[in-house]
Amino acid sequence: MLKKRNAYVILLFIFLMCVNVIKAESYLFSHGFADTLNQFCYYIKNYNWLGRGYENKNYILYNPVKSFNFPDAMCKHIPNLYYTSLGQSNEIASLKKAYDQMDTDKDATLDKKLYDNKRILFGISRGASTIINFLAKYKSGKTKSDKVKAVILESPFDHMESIIMKHWFIELLAKLPFLNKERIYNIFCKITQYKDNGAHSINLVDKIDKNIPVMFVCSKSDKSVPYLATIKLYKKLIQSGHKKAHLLQLPNGRHARLLQDGKNGEKYQNVIHAFYKKYGLKHDEALAAKGEEDFKNCNPGVDQLG
Predict the structure, then answer these.
(1) Is residue 34 part of a domain?
(2) Do the bridges between strand 214-219 and strand 245-250 make them parallel or antiparallel, or are there none, so unpaired?
(3) Which of 206, 216, 215 is nearest to 237 (CA)?
(4) What is the chain's Cα-based Rg?
(5) Is 169 inside any structural domain?
(6) Does residue 168 form part of some domain?
(7) How confident is the model at residue 19 (pLDDT cuts 50, 70, 90)?
(8) What is the pLDDT of residues 109-122, one digit of tens each?
(9) E-assigned strands of 111-179?
(10) What is the CATH number of the domain that holds 96?
């Protein structure tokens, strides 16, 4: 009888150990234009930099996070324009490479896989648009999107023309003699890897797997990517029959700094945790509870968006 009881205790111990080693999701971070892989530090709960530990007040990512550089990344604010494609071929290839590496990357100290197969993709601006194009291209084949359990897209643009027509810097350039917005667009296409006939998110967003929950986030005061460009993507996705698409519109917030924008940043954080809870992903219960009501309003219909 004692041996039998001991056997049950051992089995219970093994079960509890297995429960404890189950991994939560891993994250793939896709940075914005004129930034680098270090941009993820603004979004993660805890991170180390130069041997010191830091913690963000607002966060929407947990460790482990894989971040990578797009081909044009040199240092913050200074991209190599020749390698810029703003979400097209060479940048999709970079995202694919990072995604595939998550299968083989190991923890150096434990010699174990570093990233779980349950993945959340998070992108900002150019990085978000690249994720859309990546997911549309790799729904099947060797690199499949079936490991992706959720996607968060902060300020993605639908087409480069949206940026050219509305960006504050382009508005200034267009006032110079012999320049206009169309000419600026043509020059940009010639000096970069961006192609007018290349991949554009507005043409591909409806190809995203309908089983993947998608959260769009934008700010109505964004001066770099017009919030209407993000709304166009959301509208096209839900018109395709996607039932797990959500849209959070913030009244204010600086481009790529939405999470640090006071009450708007708190709302952003809380809604994302409610989004995680909705789809059975790792989240902070208290933050999710705070964001529940706002999250319920993140499913506007096309007729509500104008």
Answers:
(1) no
(2) parallel
(3) 206
(4) 21
(5) no
(6) no
(7) very low
(8) 888 999 999 999 99
(9) 112-113, 119-124, 148-154
(10) 3.40.50.1820
Domain that holds residue 95: 66-158+197-304
Position 137: which residue type?
Answer: K
Q: What does the block give as tokens for 112? A: 């174990």
CA dihedral of residues 289, 295, 296, 297 (deg, nearest 10): 140
**Token representation of residue 30:** 């896709």
Q: Which two tokens stand for residue 135?
A: 């997911």
Amino acid letter, 120: I
What is the mean pLDDT of the segment spanning 157-166?
A: 89
Q: How many domains does the chain have?
A: 1
138, 154 in Cβ contact below 8 A? Answer: no
Give the number of residues written for the chain: 306
Q: Answer for the pair 148, 214: CB distance below 8 angstroms, yes or no.
A: no
Tokens of 90: 């060479």
**Residue 209, SS3?**
coil
Q: Is residue 237 part of a domain?
A: yes
Query: pLDDT of 190-210, one tens digit each?
Result: 999 999 999 999 999 999 999
Judge residue 298's burial from the number of C-beta atoms within 10 Å of its C-beta, 0-12 exposed, 13-18 middle, 19 or more buried.
buried
The token duo for 104 is 């083989």
> Is-above-0.85 flag for pTM?
yes
Closest CA to 47 of 36, 59, 35: 59
Number of H helices, E strands in the chain: 10, 10
